[in-house]
Amino acid sequence: MKASYAAHALQDIATPERAGARTAARLAEVGALFTADLAWIEGEIAEATGDGPRSATDAARHLFSGGGKRIRPLAVLLTAACFGPVPEQARALAVVAELVHLATLLHDDVVDDAPERRGKPTARLVWGNAVSVLAGDLLLTHALERTHAAAPALMSDLIATLRRLVDGEIVQLRGRVQLDVREETYFTIVRDKTASLFGWAARAGATVAGAEPAQIAALGEFGERLGTAFQLVDDLLDYEGDPRVTGKALHADLGEGKVTLPLLRAVGNDPSLSRAVELARQGDADASERLASAVTAPIRDAVRARARDEAARGIAGLARLRESPAKSLLAGLARDLTERSA
């Protein structure tokens, strides 16, 4: 069952419908390099999501079965491969990176009152908020146990990363009580809530592969830049994505009260929109439409350009690494993710 589940999930990772054609092609290229590793990782994630009491495991598997790009596990594998054959520890830590990610999604959906993720009802709708929270907690314990077993020296870095994830969520939640339109606050949230785990994944792969401290730091910077770019594009897709492809309704972030960079740029151009933001958070459909219309093509282009810049800055740091297929794939993946449409 574990093997068949892994094979099915692997087929789903790199489809154009899930990732967009350009990113899907790059993911397929990466997948060809790590076929056996990725199959093992998928199987281990499937096993972990089923390890524990029901209904928590039902909720965890419900989320996992929705698929995903597995960018964080790939970051672990690719950064490790920059220094030679991928060690067994890196595979174990790739599982950890995805388990932490899945846990944050289960928690986020409760905080956001989200009705849908990846085109399916969220676990909180099916099993309730309490079960969804506990399912996320369960996955975090599995992540900590696996890190302690595979690479105990990385525990302190993982714990610090988890703290940043929580801090970012708290700052974002605070913004729902009092609107904060400062871009500085937005980027604090993005770097803590999203980019920090990308950074940990990149450092983890490099560390267990025997990289030098300067190289580990450079890859950590790359990971954080990649994570920031990834989130910027995610925010952009709330205004221009195809729900049939993204699995997410347009303007879903607006409905959940999230203040993203496209929206901040619109409010910066017209401060009177602040009132519309408050009304949209209360479910006012007209206010949401007004805000969506205010996120114009020039604003969207500027956000995409910022994502490209973040990726380029991260790629520049890869100059500390020797040339290798893995390094080239890291750079290519970073560029492609900034152009994705899903």
Topology:
Layout: H1 2-13, H2 16-19, H3 21-33, H4 35-49, H5 56-64, H6 71-81, H7 88-111, E1 116-117, E2 120-121, H8 123-127, H9 129-150, H10 155-174, H11 183-208, H12 213-240, H13 243-246, H14 252-255, H15 261-269, H16 273-281, H17 285-294, H18 297-316, H19 325-338
Helix pairs in contact: 1-4, 3-19, 4-7, 5-7, 5-9, 6-7, 6-11, 6-19, 7-9, 7-11, 10-11, 11-12, 12-18, 16-17, 18-19
Note down, in words, how this protein is organized:
With 342 residues, the protein is mainly alpha-helical. Mean pLDDT is 88; it is low at 1-18. The radius of gyration is 19 Å and the shape is globular. Helices cover 76% and strands 1% of the residues. It has one domain (2-338): Farnesyl Diphosphate Synthase. Strands 1-2 form a two-stranded antiparallel sheet. The chain is built from 19 helices and 2 strands. Helix 7 (88-111) packs antiparallel against helix 9 (129-150) and helix 7 (88-111) runs antiparallel to helix 11 (183-208).
